[in-house]
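Support request, priority: normal
Reporter: lab tech (M.K.)
Component: structure prediction queue

Hi team, I submitted a job for N-acetyltransferase domain-containing protein from Lymnaea stagnalis yesterday, and the status page still shows it as pending. I've pasted the exact input below so you can check whether something in the sequence is tripping the parser. The sequence length should be 510 residues. Please let me know if I need to resubmit or if it's stuck on your end.
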Amino acid sequence: MFRVLQFSKLFTAASSFRGHLVIKNFCELHLYQLLHRNQILEGSSQIRLLRSSACQQIFNNRDSMSSVRQFDRTTDLSRFLIEIGTDPKEARYWLKNFKSSVESSEVFMVVCVENDVMENQALLETFSSSISFLYRNCMSPLIVCGSGSKQTTFKEMKDACIQNALRLNDLLERHGAYTRVLYPGCGVVTGESLLHGEPGNTHQLNVSTEIIKSSLASQHLPIVLSYGETAAGQIFAIKPWDLTAQMSRLLQPKKVMFINSHGGFLDEHGKVIANINLPTDLATVDQKCWYTPEIINTMSRVNQLLSDLPTDSSVVITSADTMLSELFSHRGSGTFFRSTESIHKYTSLEGIDLVRLRLLLDKSFMKSIVDSYFEDISSQIHAIYLCESYSGVAIILKSERTHVPYMCKFAVTNRAQGQGTGEMLWDRLIQSEPRLFWRSKTDNPINTWYFKKCEGSHNNHMWLVFWYGILDPNLSAGLIKDAVSRADSFVPNGFITGIGSDDEEERMGG
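Reply from support: The job had stalled in the queue. We restarted it manually and it finished. Here are the results:
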């Protein structure tokens, strides 16, 4: 009883000082544990009264926190667009998509911050700004901080980790976010360590989500340090990856992000590898010269994690200063891992749900396909590459004039674009079709992407004609003539108005 009263007094004193948020968090946490775990004094009226009073103090900040989350949304959006450099419609789409799919009491994203960020003041400032943006827009992340990297003893590592977490806490507080640092030994992470001192494997690492969920319910961002506690009370270090993976399996977030100072994986030319599709790319690992044992190991671990997460969840490795552009733009900025769906190849319309395919085409182009479209192409089909969920399609027709396959339609939904489906579908085309040509209206926003994919093009001011795999330069004239002479497959002025804006679906195709 004495310990409970002492903590209650300490909490009451600390909560009156806005600048002592760390002390307040510590007292809240331990008071919560004492009040809810003390079974012996459960029947005491004094304990019940104290618990009611303390819990009211802990959670009575919701109104003020809600006002913080409304803090200067105009400034937020302006800074957001300047930093990301993305289309406002695209930004709104992702904000709407993420916010609508996550409850306020759920973890939107588990973020593992590597030591090179935690120990760099500028990067930590940028990271804090991005996290606070998510906080104000009701997308609550859980942050995992690792052990210090420059220390030699276990105590030095632990102390450095705590100091880094406190620095992060202070920066987030300055940006208007409320946090709760979950210190080593607070009961969130338990297990038995195989190695003493150094971060190592653990037997049955257990994570209690009770305190995490209570933090989220009171609109505090949880900051978890990568340490656990044994049954005997011994503190041991955990590899940040292991803790992040375990947290993610329990909380089932939309995103899992590993934040560092340098960004995603690089290929042999020093360019960021934008997308890795799992388990597909693991099966072809020996065909890429930029794969290293470290990359292969990471891919295997991510593949195991994705298999335990919802199908629309993803894992990203990116830098602290490109975190928001990775989240809120189709182009991304880091290495994006996703579980890929199957892409089926058809040589006829048999076995295809034409109602779903028509809906995909109509929404992707924001125009209505003519009623006779499928009947018109049925005898001309060379191949149809269709994603299993009908989120993307490439319709390839025969060309009697050139004998080069003609891509009549390439369509991917907006959501699928952000998940890398467009690139995945295009990779399948390149593997299966050594030669291809297609056309696109000159005002189509996807043309920039097409220019990167083609080996030749022609502009007649109405149509852009693209091609790849054509070795005979004399053949290009025939391709251009064939492409521009084809009839339009859309209803004249048949624009779809029911969707309303590109926030729902964005035109992608030609």
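Confidence is low (pLDDT under 50) at residues 1-74, 499-510. The two ends are 73 Å apart (CA to CA). Let us know if anything else looks off. Ticket resolved.
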